[in-house]
Design brief:
Rossmann fold, about 50% helix, alpha/beta, five-stranded parallel β-sheet
Length: about 150
């Protein structure tokens, strides 16, 4: 079984496309919480409210980091998606953490981000442009077969 952690942008259905495309492959997927409100508010919901937005966000980031670190540490492959609309600083951090742990890293990004992400891309074993390519990489890794 190949364990794959899907990190990064949460505003599109790229994760669902990969999971659907990988049906029939021996893959187990995990990811951060993708419910934006739950992710933002988990710290205060569990550890108590904060009037200052900085501490509100800080508590959420710390609680989310527990899940993220576990998911990346347990993964054989980490896929990090950089979306078009927002700056995903957390995605860059996750890519760096995965690289530091020696994880096989696949970056999923559009060509217009090539320059900005050149250091991240240099740490990756593959830079894919769409979810289909990620699925094809997973299929090749597990079966040795090229796409039809």
């Amino acid at each position: 079984m190949l364990k794959v952690y899907l990190s990064g942008e949460i505003h599109t259905d790229w994760r669902e496309q990969i999971v659907e495309g990988a049906k029939g492959l021996d893959v187990e997927f995990s990811s951060p919480v993708t419910d934006h409100a739950a992710s933002d508010d988990c710290g205060v919901a569990i550890l108590g409210g904060e009037e200052n937005k900085y501490w509100h966000d800080h508590k959420g980031a710390m609680v989310n980091a527990i899940r993220t670190r576990k998911g990346i540490a347990d993964a054989d492959v980490v896929v990090v998606r950089f979306g078009e609309k927002y700056k995903q600083w957390n995605a860059a951090f996750d890519a760096g953490y995965a690289a530091a742990l020696g994880k096989s890293l696949i970056i999923l990004q559009q060509p217009e981000h090539d320059h900005a992400l050149k250091e991240v891309d240099a740490a990756a074993l593959a830079v894919a442009r769409d979810p289909v390519q990620v699925v094809q990489i997973l299929q090749y890794v597990l079966t040795g077969k090229l796409p039809a």
